[in-house]
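Board notes, transcribed. Complex of a protein with NAP.
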Amino acid sequence: MKVVAVREGEQTPTVMEKPCPEPSEGEALVRTLRVGVDGTDHEVLSGGHGGFPEGEDHLVLGHEAVGVVEDPNGTDFEAGDVVVPTIRRAPERVRSDGGASAESVAANEPNEYFARGEPDMAPDGMYHERGIVGAHGFMAEYFTSPAEYLVSLPPELADVGFLVEPLSITEKALELSYASRSTFEWDPESAIVLGNGCLGLLTLGMFEHTEGIERSYCLGRRDRPDPTIDIIEELGAEYVDSRETPVDELPEAVEPMDLVYEATGYAPHAFQTIDALAPNGVGALLGIPGSWEFEIDGGALHEEFVLHNKALIGSVNSHVRHFETAIEDLQALPDWLIDAVVTGVYGTDDLEQAFDDSNTTIKTAVELSTR
Ligand code: NAP
Ligand code: BGC
Ligand code: ZN
């Protein structure tokens, strides 16, 4: 079968041939429809994040997938069911083609996070992420997955099912944000998304259409005309240019924010967020910037947390229940937004377009097969 992979020493995706995987007990075989591309995929390609499966010289890309069950293999699924896979797998249970090996499952208990059904809370090093770190991804004509990691999708959403995973990321971040404010009545009225990439714009769509935020903003660093600024304004939100309004000056220049959602991966934003917040506000950090040194006034920020009851939470990955709520989000988002955010769906013969990172591209997907 055809797969899209990155080879060791290269920074661009290639099409390779690999044998079709065979499902082990408890796994279904899925025919892949579409796989989305996000900022993380570009970080994986550039070598800034993730890693190859042990002993392998390539990584099959792709973590935002939607597919059709080809062979239920004794699981509760039926052939033809449309499904979305979750990303994390217990390291000791993953074999090189990304599926579980019957022998290793028998020989090894999954670590405590997986045993508790909370893989999204496993610390770095205690999980593999398909298409990102340690396990091959879903950008292949077929993939296998344990049934517990497949979420059913209404068939009418099959074409856009690759958006479920990114929406689930925001579901988890918002759950953690609300949990951190659970000792008092917290009803955020002002909120800003930092970053006008695909995660940022989908999150802004949720602020407007599922979260009921009264005043929402989105921060970027682009000149008009720009398709992302058009989307921000069409959503009824306000565009903020970080070159004119630094994040820590938001309270004076715009307004203090009850909620800040960082999706830039720009490390200074994490700390500027503390000053951007209104008293009792929360900042959710999603970026994965790597080492980045700069000066901050630690004492002033420490005091700001304490005297103004502020919180910062970090959030990564998501749980099956976040995928389930994300499906409801996808149903609630207007068609025009999905059409505007998904700037292209390409075959494996057009990887250059699918992985284009220019300002005209927001969200792309690779199509492996059709229903
Ligand atoms: P993306 O498409 O690369 O979007 C990042 C956006 O941030 C870009 O539009 C970029 O603008 C903007 N940006 C960067 N620095 C900025 C600055 N100083 N001022 C204003 N705007 C700035 O990536 P994505 O897929 O949306 O993901 C966003 C971030 O979240 C990435 O760091 C990714 O690794 C992370 N992420 C984390 C999780 C998680 O589970 N924690 C999940 C998904 C993604 P330009 O395009 O104009 O440069
Ligand atoms: C994925 C998450 C993953 C994170 C860190 C994101 O792009 O959507 O599932 O946990 O990257 O690797
Ligand atoms: Zn992602």
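Residues 103-107 have pLDDT under 50 and may be disordered. The chain has twelve helices and 19 strands.
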